[in-house]
């Protein structure tokens, strides 16, 4: 067995795939430089609640890997940095990396955020609304009912926003401002939450959300054809909503059920192993559902 493995590897992107690759390489004896554009490692998975299809808690899966990665002697994490140039050939690459400033002493920072309490500079991300917000009476009734429901709950902002997002299928700007006033919470705090979680939407969406997986497995099994078929069927493009507000078409990367590729979801329903010809039937099903509800 070769015990004298030498060499170093650059892994670009510190999401779960980058972290796992770095750990595997580092455990094989390579010196690993793990490069990440954002200020921290973890990527999208660190923002998820559960993972498909086992419903395992995302952070329970991920946390041990984050810790191992941070402590591994063979891994050097370079965050807040971008790859600028790669030259050379296999076995002998040279890379140029630009590291962005953090404006804190990284050796001393523990991420406690105490410095934000003492920072003399205040940047208002969103203006605080001072004028009274007038909502449509029916909207106001719905929002007031939600606020009433959670009025005694500690840390109620998240469930309030979740309920509004479910009720209106997005977070309308006027309602966010209304909540800000009624709850006495700054708009920036609300937007911080609303933009952190993928489940919140700031744009109006259709009653049914069609999401086409464009992960590698689905792509090679024909996802682009499915997108085209849906676009033709609904006369919209990805990211758009039909005029009747019944359907929104979106894409996402890997639902974690690659064995069913190509896959789409319509709301909570998963449709796998699809062909273009299946699309009209699926859409008709949801259209009929709507017609029945309207009748
Ligand atoms: S790539 Fe589509 S489910 Fe994994």
Explain what you see.
By secondary structure, the chain is α/β, with parallel strands linked by helices. It folds into 3 domains: 8-99, FAD/NAD(P)-binding domain, CATH 3.50.50.60; 137-196; 208-294, Glutaredoxin, CATH 3.40.30. 37% of the residues lie in helices and 18% in strands. It has 10 helices and 11 strands. The longest helix has 16 residues, at 279-294. The N and C termini lie far apart (74 Å). The mean pLDDT is 88. The structure holds FE2/S2 (inorganic) cluster. FE2/S2 (inorganic) cluster is lined by residues 213, 215-218, 254-255, 257-258, 261, 263. Residues 213, 215-218, 254-255, 257-258, 261, 263 line the site of FE2/S2 (inorganic) cluster.
Determine Rg (CA atoms, Å): 24 Å
Instruction: Name the helix and strand elements from N-terminus to C-terminus, one letter apiece.
Output: EHEEEHEEEHHHHHEHHEEEH
- Give the percentage of residues in beta strands: 15-25%
What small ligands are held by the chains?
FE2/S2 (inorganic) cluster
Q: Number of helix segments?
A: 10
Care to count the β-strands?
Answer: 11
CATH architecture verdict of the largest domain: 3-Layer(bba) Sandwich
Mean pLDDT: 88
- The span between the termini is 74 Å
For the biggest sheet, the summary is: 4 strands, mixed
Global shape: flat
Supply the CATH class of the largest domain. Alpha Beta
User: Which oligomeric state applies?
Assistant: single chain
CATH topology descriptor of the largest domain: FAD/NAD(P)-binding domain
